[in-house]
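Supplementary notes (optional reading)

For those who missed the lab, this is the record we used. Protein: Transcriptional regulator. Length: 131 residues.
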Amino acid sequence: MKDERIEQAILILDEYQKQHKIEKQRKLAISAVEYTGMPSGSNKGNPSENKVVSGISATQFCETVRATVNSLDSQLYTTIINRRYLNGELCHSIYNDVGLSEPTFFRKQNKALLNFYEMCPLIVNKKMIAN
C-alpha cells in the first residue's frame, strides 16, 4: 500500500509533464501569433492572449516544481526526481548510473518523493493546486 503523500507527490510530478508540454508550446505560440493589422473580434475573448495566459500559468507551475526539486535535502534525491519524473528516464538506467541496487533505489526514490511532498508549495492540505 502506497503512502498517500507519495501518491500526492507523483500527482504533481505527473501534472508537471502535462504543464511542461504547454510551457514548450507557449514558446512556439508566442512566436507564431499572427497579426494582420485588421481589427477583428471573437466572442471567446482573445485566443492569442488566452494562449499566453495559459502558458504563463504552465511556466509558473513548472518553475515551481523545478525549484522544489532543486532544493531537496539530498543531491541524490534531486537526481532521482529529475531523471525519473521530469525527464522520464527508466529506473534501471538511473540506479545503474548512480551505483545503487534496485531495492535501494526504490527506497531512496520513496524518500525523495516524501521530501518533495514536504517541500512543494503546490501541495496544500494534501490537495494539489491545479490551474
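If you only remember one thing from this example: The helical segments are 4-32, 47-70, 75-86, 91-98, 102-119.
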